[in-house]
Write a structure and sequence with these properties.
One of its GO terms (molecular function) is oxidoreductase activity, acting on the aldehyde or oxo group of donors, NAD or NADP as acceptor. It comes from Triparma columacea. β10 and β11 form a beta hairpin. Helices cover 40% and strands 16% of the residues. It has a ten-stranded mixed β-sheet with strand order 1-2-18-14-13-8-9-12-11-10, with helices on both faces. A six-stranded mixed β-sheet has the order 5-4-3-6-7-16, sandwiched between helices. It has a two-stranded antiparallel ribbon with strand order 15-17. It is an alpha/beta fold.
């Protein structure tokens, strides 16, 4: 494969100074906005995820904004980290910005601990000069492969061959625009998926010095077996998901706190049909908590009241049916979904009891299965359960606590939780958004079921073992709606991702104003039948049927 030879040769002359300039060129590629419509990729994404026609405008606007801002903020953070005058200290509480008031994150470091030693060892896993890193494409979120690639290119200084995921082959079109400066400089190349034999041949090629993947644990083990046959002995870094737990601190919840906690849990469970590495999977409840029945009923109500997206990911329908039937046959289904898209709540029992059933906690579901686990012994014992092998992985978790909770106990719990991202009164989803600010995302060091290594940590914090994301506004104000109205997403996209070019703020305001004027004219024309109803809404990410 000529691409591997070219990339391997280029890796020997890939300097830090040229990286910064290429990062700036990639930002210009984002701001060009040409990637937004390249290959009609938003339509293909919506088709795969079976998004209904009446939801496609919102879906497309939001996905475009998230893709652009994720890539741009990551590149900007990398450039800042390379400045000799960089003074950012993410080991102190750091704001997520004006768009997330009251939300902070903080990188936690350790020295002379097993986790710190594992983190240092994982940091050394990289390709050597003269070899190439292969990044295997991700199937569930369109922007993840981009971030994985940028991490290897800029932070580790590697050249990268991207092998696209078979489900998302169309992403080659926006990627070719966004990564154009890297492709032109022979730092990145892409190939389409041509089946397992072709992928195995790439992984066994001695010019491959490292592999990174985001996906399933089973896939990672298969890759490791293949790499063992490569004479270059490439290492594998990975992000493999988790049976993500949420701890409900046993205390007195107000009605508002209880309802918000239940709604936030259900929203987090339903995201992307349950097919996210960070989707909630296990509710951890105190067995003697007085409000557990009330909370369960509120969760059931929200499961039936909130919108239910399609669980589209290939293969997960079988996982859903297997897990669901496993508990239904034992009479342990607390809520049974009527379709493969509906949330089914299963009762695992009391942890430590003779009939505790851990099938839904030791396996990542990646589908709409929600496990209910009760733990005796209060908050410390609940943390012990989450840190145990009874929970699959260590990628992320959340702890919810009402105002009445003992603050010292809550802080002690947050400190003891061994997960890469620990969220307090907020969804762990916010953990991934810290990458553009110097945060990190990955498994707790030394625990491999959620993978090896991290993305992010662009400031190179030594001994970083996890990050804590906090909602300082309290549980009653927990985020329960992660969607963005289409017009807001489109305005934010123009303002933050595209910007005003050389005209700065004036140019940004001009572009936003012109988009809104054109949209108003479009709507008038649609109303009086002067234009076709399928015409593209100006400035939007509308997806043609």
């Amino acid at each position: 494969m000529s691409q591997l030879s070219n990339l391997a040769s280029r890796s020997k002359s890939w300097s830090t100074s040229s990286r910064v300039e290429l990062a700036k060129s990639c930002i210009q590629a984002v701001e060009s906005d040409a990637w937004s419509t390249a290959g009609n990729w938003l339509k293909h994404s919506a088709d795969i995820e079976k998004v209904p026609a009446n939801e496609r405008l919102k879906y497309g606007s939001q996905l475009r904004f998230v893709m652009g801002t994720t890539v741009k903020s990551f590149l900007e953070a990398y450039i800042r980290s390379c400045s000799p005058n960089a003074t950012v200290d993410v080991t102190k509480p750091t704001s997520l910005g004006p768009g997330a008031p009251g939300i902070t994150f903080q990188v936690v470091t350790e020295t002379d601990t097993p986790a710190a030693s594992a983190a240092a060892a994982e940091e050394c896993l990289r390709a050597t000069p003269g070899t190439v890193t292969v990044v295997l494409g991700v199937g569930n979120q369109p922007f993840l492969t981009l971030v994985d690639t940028l991490q290897r290119v800029f932070y580790y200084g590697e050249t990268v061959l991207i092998k696209q995921h078979p489900l998302r082959s169309y992403l080659q079109h926006p990627y070719r625009v966004l990564l154009a400066p890297l492709i032109a400089d022979n730092v990145v190349h892409m190939v389409q998926d041509e089946g397992i034999p072709a992928t195995v041949a790439i992984l066994k090629d001695p010019r491959v010095g490292h592999v990174h993947m985001t996906g399933a644990e089973k896939t990672a083990h298969a890759i490791e077996r293949t790499l063992a046959e490569n004479p270059s002995s490439p290492a594998l870094t990975s992000e493999l998901g988790c049976s993500t737990p949420w701890i409900l601190t046993p205390a007195v919840y107000t009605e508002a706190e209880l309802k918000k906690a239940a709604l936030a849990a259900v929203v987090q469970k339903k995201l992307n049909g349950g097919s996210n590495c960070l989707d909630l999977q296990v509710l951890v409840i105190g067995s003697d908590w007085d409000q557990k029945k009330e909370f369960l009923e509120e969760v059931k109500i929200q499961c039936m009241a909130t919108d239910t997206p399609v669980c589209y990911y290939p293969g997960v329908a079988k996982t859903y049916k297997d897990m669901k039937s496993h508990y239904e046959q034992k009479g342990k289904a607390l809520l049974s979904g009527t379709t493969d898209n509906d949330v089914t709540i299963v009762d695992c029992g009391v942890y430590g009891s003779h009939d505790f059933d851990n099938y839904a906690t030791v396996n990542e579901a990646f589908c709409p299965i929600l496990a209910w686990v009760e733990v005796e012994g209060g908050l410390p014992a609940m943390v012990d359960f989450c840190n145990s092998e009874e929970v699959c992985g260590s990628l992320s978790c959340a702890l919810l606590s009402p105002k009445s909770a003992d603050a010292e106990q809550v802080e002690a719990a947050l400190a003891r939780l061994q997960f890469g991202t620990v969220a307090h009164n907020i969804s762990q989803l916010l953990g991934y958004t810290t990458l553009g600010l110097g945060g990190m995302w990955g498994a707790y060091p030394g625990e491999s079921r959620s993978g090896v290594g991290v993305v992010g940590n662009l400031y190179g914090v030594k001994g970083a073992v996890k990050q804590i994301v906090r909602n300082n506004n309290g549980l009653a104000k927990i985020l329960t709606d992660v969607s963005i109205p289409p017009v807001v997403a489109d305005v934010l996209h123009k303002a933050l991702n595209v910007g005003g070019g050389k005209l700065g703020v004036v140019g940004t305001l001009g572009r936003v104003w012109w988009m809104l004027v054109r949209r108003a004219v479009h709507n008038v024309g649609l109303t009086v039948k002067l234009i076709d109803s399928d015409a593209r809404l100006p400035g939007s990410a509308v997806i043609a049927e």
